[in-house]
Design goal:
The chain has 396 residues and is α/β, with parallel strands linked by helices. The protein has a domain of 260 residues: TIM Barrel (Alpha-Beta Barrel). It has 13 helices and 14 strands. About 3% of the residues have low confidence.
């Protein structure tokens, strides 16, 4: 199916027609209706509220363990730290099955996580992931700055709280200057909406983000320290940690080495951690940014690591071209073949969650571009699930 066809399918999902079914003819080309003359002083009675038809009621909750055998490809997205009813309504309508929350360190404890979980489950959504500002992509941990021991203890307590609350996963980035704006050198437009632009030549002119140069060796040392401290606790708590690649995947940014920019770095991370509870949040957009410098394409990464259960989550994102300069695009406008990405996930037996990422003009509260991205993803998933569904008896 051509990309435009998936765009129509995405719209169909968003409007509630589901899958890749054809839109009703009345929607595509409404027929002209000749209304009879109005009779003065008359009107139709107020239509009664008949409730939801059976097929439009909230679906059953997605699998409690999204990584278990047979769980398949789940659809997720991020929620604000304090989601309101309008947010829940938007994401339920869009078809979100798993939610991720980004919260501050001073917010996160067992009570907070359990409340968010209960709120979501009452509305048919599983809480997959809690990311903590102050632990995820934290310069104190990444650079081994004063206070690192305290931060590692806080991370371990977070894992215990998440596990106790039944949250099975968290994404981790070992990146020091994400929140200082070093990952973007400009703002472009995608279908008229603001989106990220990165130019490596411009980024090289940026000042040191933390006052000096931090080498590969130092970053590997700090990651090893992090892994040895928290991975055993993750195993005890039953929480998986998915490592996000360095975005953008260049050797250094703001003077800080970026060791998780390629296949070699990801493989070494698995050797250091050596745990079933440590794997990847594979951002295919980041991987596409790196081009040949990553050592393996996104498809090759999926083929190697998805069958082994080492990919927990996919960031489903696209760009116009690889480094040294790229612009983020809508999911169906970039150079990655996203149908191929979804197909390879299904072919590899991927059990995990796929989420949109860096949606142009996107908001955690919900918007039309987010709805489009989610509908597009659901349409692709429906297509590949049907493609690989077991044949029924008597069918060719």
């Amino acid at each position: 199916m051509e990309r435009r066809g998936f765009g129509i399918a995405a719209l169909a999902n968003t409007l509630g027609f589901g899958g890749v079914r054809k839109l009703p003819q009345s929607v595509l080309a409404p027929a002209a209706i000749e209304a009879p003359p109005l009779v003065p002083g008359t009107s139709a009675p107020e239509p009664p509220d008949l409730g939801d038809p059976e097929e439009s009621k909230p679906r059953a909750l997605a699998p409690l363990n999204p990584f278990g055998a047979g769980a398949g490809i789940g659809i997720g997205h991020r929620f604000p730290a304090e989601p309101g009813e309008r947010v829940f309504t938007f994401y339920r309508t869009a078809g979100i099955e798993y939610g991720s929350i980004l919260a501050r360190l001073d917010q996160v404890n067992y009570g907070y996580i359990a409340r968010r979980r209960d709120e979501m489950e009452k509305r048919g959504i599983r809480l997959l992931n809690v990311n903590v500002v102050g632990l995820h992509c934290d310069p104190v941990i990444v650079l081994g700055l004063p206070g690192v021991d305290e931060k590692l203890e806080r991370y371990k307590q977070f894992l215990r709280d998440a596990g106790k609350a039944g949250v099975p996963y968290t994404t981790y980035g070992h990146t020091a200057n994400l929140r200082l704006g070093y990952g973007a050198t400009g703002r472009g437009r995608a279908r008229g909406l603001r989106t990220r632009v990165f130019d490596e030549a411009v980024a090289k002119s940026y000042p040191l983000s933390h006052g000096r140069v931090f080498s590969d060796r130092e970053i590997w040392q700090s990651f090893t320290r992090f892994a040895k401290a928290v991975v055993p606790v993750a195993e005890e708590a039953g929480v998986r940690i998915g490592l996000h690649p360095d975005d953008p995947p260049i050797p250094t940014l703001g003077g800080v080495a970026r060791v998780f920019r390629n296949y070699e770095g990801y493989s070494r991370a698995l050797e250091i951690t050596n745990s079933p509870n440590f794997g990847f949040c594979l951002c295919v957009g980041t991987w596409a940014e790196g081009g040949r410098a990553t050592g393996k394409s996104a498809v090759e990464m999926i083929r190697q690591f998805a069958p082994t259960g080492k990919i927990f989550k996919i960031h489903f994102r696209n760009i116009d071209q690889p480094l040294p300069r790229f612009t983020e695009t809508f999911v169906d406008d970039g150079f990655l073949d996203m149908h191929e990405i979804m197909r390879e996930l299904r072919k590899a037996g991927f059990n995990g969650v796929v989420v949109p990422d860096h949606v142009a003009g996107g908001s955690a509260d919900g918007d039309t571009s987010t709805a489009y991205a989610i509908g597009y993803m659901r349409a692709l998933r429906d297509v590949v699930n049907k493609e690989f569904a077991p044949s029924k008896p008597g069918r060719a």
